[in-house]
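It is worth pausing here to work through a concrete case rather than discussing structure prediction in the abstract. The textbook approach is simple: state the sequence, then state the predicted structure, then interpret. We follow exactly that order.
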Amino acid sequence: MIAITVTQEVKDQNELTESVGSIKTYSTYPNKFWVTERMVGGYNQSTPELDALHIADGFREVVQPTYDQATQYRGAIFFDAGNDYFTYTVIDKTDEQIQAELVAESEGRKQEIIQADIVSSAEATAQASDDDTSLDNQDLFPMWSGDSNEYALDYKVQDFTVDNVLALYKVVQAHTSQPTWIPRDTPALFTRIQ
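Step two, the predicted structure:
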């Protein structure tokens, strides 16, 4: 990543919308740019002459600082004149910020566990339902997988028909799935619930 400080000249000549004094970052050099020398194409190339022009125009590398994300965060970008590159300030989080993030993370995990428990409970109830009720709640059933899943007798899964319709199938013979044992193609293992 590279950056340049937006001066009035840089802003006017390159029709930038950023305010004077701000820092504009680029993932690569723009194709056209004008400060020292007008370049309407090929500015993004790398040759010794163009590399020197990039530096003369004010472009410098952006160095990503290392920091501990648990206790610090990346602040605003600035030009480090002593090292002749752009970088970011590293700011220590307050105890309150650290605690708030840990609480939010804990709440997020809690919600994931609750959601997984609800889905698991709904799937178990759906598996125990009769065929008509199962069809009414087809979205609760897992998709079939050929990745060596253990399928017990009467277990229900969803898969596509030859017409790309999502259908519900019931296992008629317990087995360990294989990629070629697609429910629609293996009536010895699955029957479609209709």
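Step three, interpretation. The two ends are 57 Å apart (CA to CA). The first strand starts at residue 2 and ends at 5.
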